[in-house]
Amino acid sequence: MTPPPARRRRGAGAPERSYLRKGSVRRAQMITTYGVGSMVAVDSESFIVAGTDSWNITEAPRIHEHRLARVLGVKSFRLPPASDDTSKDGVHVRRFPLWHSCPSCNALQHVRAFNSPPGKNECGDCQEDLVPSRFVVACPKGHIDDFPYWKWAHRDNRQEGASGLCGGEMRLRTTGRTASLRSVLISCTCGIPEVSMEGAFRRNTLAKLHVRCSGARPWLKDAPAETSCTEVPRTLQRGSSMAWQPIVKSVLSIPPWSDGLAARLADHWDDLRSLDRAGLEIYLKALAPKGGEVFPVEAVLALLEAEQHEESDLEEGADHNSRYFALRMQEYERLCAGNAERDSAREEQFICEPPTESSPALEPFGLTSPMLVKRLREVRALKSFSRVHTPDSNTEVHEAPLSLAELDWLPAMEVQGEGVFLRLDATRVNAWARNVAVAARGERIRTNHTRLLRERASDPQSVPDSPATPRMVLLHTLAHVLINEWSLEAGYPAASLRERLYADDSMAGLLIYTATSDSAGSLGGLVAQGEPSRLVRTLRSALHRAEWCSADPLCIESEAGGTGSVNLAACHACVLLPETSCEQNNGLLDRALLVGTPSDASVGFFRQMLDS
């Protein structure tokens, strides 16, 4: 990314020069951490990442994933562009927030009012580097703006002149006595009493000051403010996770789309759909380089047939769940069926096989034979983002756009790694879920989650059903305890592993796989943890560890916990994971469904194995 030129403070005698600086982040972080609309700190300055319509993607690599592109309504994906020392291209940013303060004279005002020298971000009077505002205001519709310091300081004693302001100059200072907001003091030279920032984060504070959402979208160049927004803005810390949450959609590459053929034909797909077999043979011969190999007609026909079949599945699934959920169904079926390495080409990106040794020791745990995913490719696309409310796969949130123009691509990244797929015996799970105590715990989570969905929905009467069934909570919690255990046994940081849940009336599986594109996600050896002999030891250790939490008995006896009270027996001392590893933002968890409670051991699905 390329922030505007600025100068860092130099000691006496240093040459007065202005340097073009570039803040660098990894391309993968442009999808998960510093995507469009997020704020990023570069040295002592703060910027907001500009919309995708300002990106120069001429040299940005394409990422092809036909199934996900079809569901998201785009033609392709692009890896965020990179820049080097000689290039001004890349991901552009804009200065935000615009209100700054001077640490020397304590002036608090718009950055333009400081009369900074050209190319520098410093106080024109003190020659001190300016400090961006720590506070911003945002609303659930994605709008974001500077904190209204004048209205906050004058809330009890307004002296409005003809311009609507008192004409004084704002000041900000910090007493340093504590780290709380009480030590951040705002004043004005008009003579009002000095006030602190304490209370600025309360939910209805800005509403009481009659502060309406401005509808500002500073990440979009020349975007008009959406002044019709009726949401009440909230005060947020500039670096708060509530200020920007990515809405990422991901998919695994599975046969027949995972051998690279579809990617090589991506630019010709519209033409291929309209041809019969004879026309297809002629077209593919014309595409082949002179003297080169012709694309196999049978393989291309298989892709076209698969697309038609999957498209009908997506349309059928849209009536009940969503097109995106239908992709999960296809993945689940392929993970169960496998894809042997001996039957695959060298370019195949999905290799899934059962272990070579038998697995009778897993049957008492209610597990079928695991599948070792020796090679997988996941594509994650940044669809949009939200503010204030945390999105997950079930919660309805407003999706802020990545650009003003309608583009036929989305920023994305791909991860290649390995994993282990586990499946529970559906018959045994159904029998366990009929236990009255189990159903009661599941219903408690489901009720709290449904309430949360209705609170966040624009139409509370049309919210989707909560997925919080005992089966889903069981699979989710099991994935968490296994990730924690493998982070200890296999040497992986917990943040480098990721869960993928397949929980529905027709599915009862989970995939744990390498989740990062850096070195921590490519250590190797995760597949080896799925061998039955090792898996049995891991399960026993993980379940015994889940029996006790350092926060017990408060944790195991908890009536509700987590954001929106959608957890029961789950806390940071036992089963919670880094949020990047969890599909549900650490919600819908209950380790009691694994191991039981002191008062009722029968609610634990694996209780008999722990007692044996």
- Our estimate of the beta-strand percent is 15-25%
Could you tell me the mean pLDDT?
A: 86
Shape: globular
Helix content: 10-25%
How far from one another are the termini?
58 Å
Kindly provide the radius of gyration, computed on alpha-carbon positions and rounded to a whole number of angstroms. 28 Å
SS field, number of helical segments: 15
Largest sheet features: 8 strands, mixed
Uncertain regions spanning at least 5 consecutive residues = 4-21, 159-163
Structural class of the helices, strands and pairings? alpha+beta
Strand segment count: 20
Question: Nutshell version of this structure?
Answer:
The chain is α+β, with helices and mostly antiparallel strands and 612 residues long. Helices cover 25% and strands 17% of the residues.
Structural notes for this entry:
The structure is a single chain. The protein is α+β, with helices and mostly antiparallel strands and 612 residues long. The chain has helices spanning 29-32, 66-72, 149-153, 205-208, 261-264, 269-273, 277-287, 297-318, 323-337, 426-433, 436-456, 470-489, 532-546, 592-595, 607-611; strands at 39-42, 45-49, 62-63, 76-78, 93-95, 99-101, 108-110, 131-132, 135-138, 144-146, 170-174, 184-188, 195-196, 234-237, 245-252, 351-353, 371-386, 409-423, 497-504, 507-514. It is 25% helix and 17% strand. The strands form five sheets. Strands 3, 4, 15, 16, 17, 18, 19 and 20 form an eight-stranded mixed β-sheet that branches. Helix 8 crosses helix 9 (323-337) and helix 12 packs across helix 13.
